[in-house]
Amino acid sequence: MEKLVCHSCDKNKTELLCGHCHMATCKTCATFVDEDSFDFFNFIPEALQNKAFCHSCNLSYASKEIDRLQETLKKAKQVNIYRKEQGTETRFIRRMQKPITVSDCQDENETLLRLAFMAVQIGFSTLVDVQINSKKIGEGRYKKYVFDGFAVPVDSKIHKSF
Ligand SMILES: [Zn+2]
Ligand SMILES: [Zn+2]
């Protein structure tokens, strides 16, 4: 591939193209979004994963998206989770929303976090009827467990009466 002059610095030649505007960007000017840049890499949309962004797209797009995701993740960690077995605590809460589901998670924590993350994205901070199921896949030493989850987002916070 022909080397192009970086459109940010107008100096360095590069083969790298920005993942957003597709203009040539040198390594010095580009920002890479990879596993090192985000704790929960698999939570970020594919449009951002393993891409390089030129200086201006990073400012106007990539870093804003990542900040937004970090913010969502922070809120997700504070979502109130009520398991299905806690039905007596949540029985007076009206289930108005469609349930949300996630699949192919690595463990129980990831399953919960993904459910909570989805809840925050649609504007909820409490989940009830939460159920997590695991199933075994593969054979012998390739055997592993994958988890899926189910939850109903609800409006109100539950005021504990005990
Ligand atoms: Zn450059
Ligand atoms: Zn760009």
How much helix, percentage-wise, in residues?
10-25%
Whole-Å distance between the termini?
Answer: 68 Å
Order of the strands making up the biggest sheet: 5-7-8-6
Q: Number of domains in the coordinates?
A: 2
Structural class: alpha+beta
Strand residues, percent = 25-35%
Number of helices: 3
CATH topology of the largest domain: Translation Initiation Factor IF3
Architecture overview:
The chain is an alpha+beta fold and 162 residues long. The chain has two domains: 4-75, no CATH class; 80-154, Translation Initiation Factor IF3 (2-Layer Sandwich), CATH 3.30.110. Helices cover 25% and strands 27% of the residues. It has three helices and eight strands; from the N terminus they run E-E-E-E-H-E-H-E-H-E-E. The protein has helices at 55-76, 87-90, 108-121; strands spanning 4-5, 13-14, 31-33, 51-53, 80-83, 100-105, 126-137, 144-154. Strands 5-7-8-6 form a four-stranded mixed β-sheet. The longest helix is centred in the middle third of the chain and has 22 residues, at 55-76. It is elongated. The protein starts with a strand and ends in an 8-residue tail after the last strand. The model has no long low-confidence stretch (mean pLDDT 91). One zinc ion binds next to helix 1. One zinc ion (ZN) is lined by residues 6, 8-9, 12, 26, 28-29.
Features:
2 domains, 27% strand, 25% helix, four-stranded mixed beta sheet, Translation Initiation Factor IF3, 162 residues, alpha+beta
